[in-house]
């Protein structure tokens, strides 16, 4: 089941490849995500000391948790990847024009996973072209439906 998606990611970026990663969370954050309290808009992945971190991912405080002092919803969270994957993604992030962004948070068995993608930013004319193709496809379907 998918709990959060980054809807702007596929519009603003061309996704070249995707990788699945685990996410290091506290117990109340897991419950909050399962209740729909996660937002990926504007989040990205960085690398420090041979570790990957998810930044700007907003996970709201779990409503039924007790007093949580000093809880920061936008804190950086560690991604669980192999050293080989980290080295590969870090190399890709240093290439010109490429960035690493999260695409969705979902479950795989009892675990929460994050799908991250290696992406290249789209230009404005690319976005317009995509919108134009979508409109033409809608017109074509409307014409076939109405006969």
From TrEMBL:
Keywords: Cytoplasm, RNA-binding. One of its GO terms (biological process) is trans-translation. Its main location: cytoplasm. It comes from the Bacteria. Pfam families: SmpB (PF01668). GO terms for cellular component: cytosol. The keyword Cytoplasm applies. It is found in: Cytoplasm. GO terms for molecular function: RNA binding. Transmembrane segments: none annotated. HAMAP family: SmpB. Required for rescue of stalled ribosomes mediated by trans-translation. Binds to transfer-messenger RNA (tmRNA), required for stable association of tmRNA with ribosomes. tmRNA and SmpB together mimic tRNA shape, replacing the anticodon stem-loop with SmpB. tmRNA is encoded by the ssrA gene; the 2 termini fold to resemble tRNA(Ala) and it encodes a 'tag peptide', a short internal open reading frame. During trans-translation Ala-aminoacylated tmRNA acts like a tRNA, entering the A-site of stalled ribosomes, displacing the stalled mRNA. Belongs to the SmpB family. This is SsrA-binding protein.
């Amino acid at each position: 089941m998918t709990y959060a998606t980054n809807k702007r990611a596929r519009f603003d970026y061309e996704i070249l490849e995707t990788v699945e990663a685990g996410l290091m969370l506290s117990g109340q954050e897991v419950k909050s995500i399962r209740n729909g309290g996660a937002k990926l808009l504007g989040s990205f992945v960085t690398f420090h000391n041979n570790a990957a971190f998810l930044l700007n991912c907003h996970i709201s405080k779990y409503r039924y948790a007790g007093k949580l002092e000093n809880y920061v919803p936008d804190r950086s969270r560690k991604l669980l990847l192999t050293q080989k994957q980290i080295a590969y993604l870090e190399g890709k992030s240093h290439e010109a024009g490429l960035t690493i962004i999260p695409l969705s948070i979902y479950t795989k068995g009892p675990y929460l996973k994050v799908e991250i993608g290696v992406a290249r930013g789209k230009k404005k004319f690319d976005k317009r072209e995509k919108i134009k193709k979508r409109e033409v496809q809608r017109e074509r379907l409307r014409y076939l439906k109405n006969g």
